[in-house]
Predict the structure.
Amino acid sequence: MSDNVTLSLASMRELSESILMSNGFNQDHAQAITDVIYACQQDDCHSHGLYRLLMCVQSIQSGRVDGQASPEVVDVAPSVVKANANSGISLLAFNAALPMLIEKTKQNGIAALAINNCYHFSALWPEVERLSEAGLAAIAMVPSHAWVAPAGGSRGTLGTNPFAFSWPRQGKHPFTFDFATSEFARGEIELYRRAGKALPEGVAIDAAGHPTTDAEAAMQGAMLTFGGYKGSALSIMIELLAGPLIDDLTSKESMAFAQGKPEAPFHGEILIAFNPDLLSGGHTERNDERAERLFADIVDQGARLPSQRRYIAREQNIQQDAVSIPRALYEDILALRKA
Amino acid sequence: MSDNVTLSLASMRELSESILMSNGFNQDHAQAITDVIYACQQDDCHSHGLYRLLMCVQSIQSGRVDGQASPEVVDVAPSVVKANANSGISLLAFNAALPMLIEKTKQNGIAALAINNCYHFSALWPEVERLSEAGLAAIAMVPSHAWVAPAGGSRGTLGTNPFAFSWPRQGKHPFTFDFATSEFARGEIELYRRAGKALPEGVAIDAAGHPTTDAEAAMQGAMLTFGGYKGSALSIMIELLAGPLIDDLTSKESMAFAQGKPEAPFHGEILIAFNPDLLSGGHTERNDERAERLFADIVDQGARLPSQRRYIAREQNIQQDAVSIPRALYEDILALRKA
């Protein structure tokens, strides 16, 4: 018996939607969540693919995530859309506000979307990719929970605070990246802990604030940001822009709000979209070529563009109409189905 | 005889303006440049203080920087200002466009300023600080010259590509940072080379693309970004947003344009400003408090906020009405004065 289970793309979608709906998400939420889980699994981003169904179901079972919430989209200023997720998962609010964000960006050159009062579990790249499908460049940022110490600090204050960016390319997948500003993902530390392996230096501190390579001590202490004081500064910026700027929680407030419940973090999200046509003064063509020369120069020296591996997986999985997940995960997912 | 020369703040300003004007900058340019040199020297940012007069004078002597250029400010879209520096130093163009950037941001919630066709030598933090003085949060980015290799690469493609951010604080200096996305500044490598000291690991590669700790080999090869592939991704984003997005040069194009002349890099700059009042839905007060709790939590654990050291220097230097620079630098500056 294989350790993996292979699913067709259609059956992956069906599985995800049915699990979500049988646990109390309405069809709109189930579809919005499934779109992103599907996109991630299709690209072999296993950490944000079908695996996340476990977190979605845990979140709604904890009793605070509203699986029926209708997001409200508010046109607050010429270049600002706000979407109140009303305690639902963020994705339906994103979908509801996306057309207005695109419209405002096309009209005004740059615009922001602030999503408020949302539970958030998803990778950011599918969102910025969608803005690039509309011909726009985009940035997305969210806080998370306060597991990460600032540079020179001794305890968790910052979230893993991911930062995603996408740039549209004519006839090609966009140039897209999405990284946590912590050196490691929380889940990676957990994997080291389970395997009884020592962490690399520079990843974590213990509860007393001292550097540690002990994964257990790291789980009790705090993670560190990538890139020392520069990554730390960037992470603080993300706290500010995706928190106080948009009237929503910091990672520390989000963690307090969760009261230790195993649910997706509750906080806000900010997206910034750029219209290359207006910002370049109508010279998108020559600047697309300029950007392509930059990419070519990177690839030519043997470096990889971010997401390149993901796009290769996407093409293979679409061609084979199949994704593969561990049997144990598949069985855990099936066990979530309610009668 | 002391190795340092002490100047009053007024005499620093006078020195800077007179050196610039005697070398062909008109009064408007000389003042705009001096404002930033003054701000940096006042904060003991020696690398971007009076020392930069050498680069400004070299730049105009190379014959391409226009010391008389009048910037043109164009209102290209509701949330986009473009300022054509017309081959002048960037700072006069920034000053000319700043009121419109502030106005658009206050009106629309978010706005961008693209400065084009400028020679650029200055730190970015004085610019984002000025936006925070107007109650706004702000980001600034510029490319530079292609001295930095992308992660996994073997040669210079990216600039040192600084990224600056500022957040306004009620009755306090703003939360501001400004860092190069290269692990080291170009000047630091040069200091190691002169001192015959080995570089730390992870800072540079040699001309064959191999890791090196030899500063001489690093100058022939390329620098690395901070934070591995994440810092590299961020640096590529800066190339795109401060280059092709705004119809201006990448670091590689800027380097080719310079033809080896010892002048400030010629390229564009992008600033993004955020209006907390509109983005927070009018709840700035409670969100200012939220941001202050975040800062307090960082400082409380013994970590330093970025720029803290700079603000301490500022207060001391203002109180003493004095800045101190090496005598050798002072003499180099005096030697720039034309009869």
Notes: The mean pLDDT of chain A is 96.
